[in-house]
């Protein structure tokens, strides 16, 4: 997906989605296979990781950014049960950059018991 144009004029903190100015493209790595068994699953997963690593010199750095709707569990995931702020910061800052702390504050007010969660959700602050 190409970026640029008016996207560059929207401040990073205007919405939770910060990936605007300076980003030319969004790359989506997707691997699918049709086999019914899991015999070759690891082979396909390893291949996708090699492609991801190969692309490293050509993509954003410090941190390597990510798009939340393309979840990447290789950058981390919540524990079963309680997820700590420091743990979630690893992927949260890649997805939301400096907006992560603000989103944690919202999550703390709206869902303090962390009812709405998934493997890379934003935790409430008291966790």
UniProtKB/TrEMBL annotation:
TM stretches of this protein: none
This protein's record includes keyword Flavoprotein: yes
The UniProt record lists the keyword Oxidoreductase: yes
Pfam families assigned: BBE
UniProt entry keywords in alphabetical sequence: FAD, Flavoprotein, Oxidoreductase
Gene3D superfamilies per UniProt: 3.30.465.10
Domain of life of the source: Eukaryota
Ranges where the Berberine/berberine-like domain occurs: 66-123
MF-aspect GO terms: flavin adenine dinucleotide binding; oxidoreductase activity
Record-given protein name: Berberine/berberine-like domain-containing protein
Taxonomic source organism: Gossypium trilobum
Species lineage: Eukaryota, Viridiplantae, Streptophyta, Embryophyta, Tracheophyta
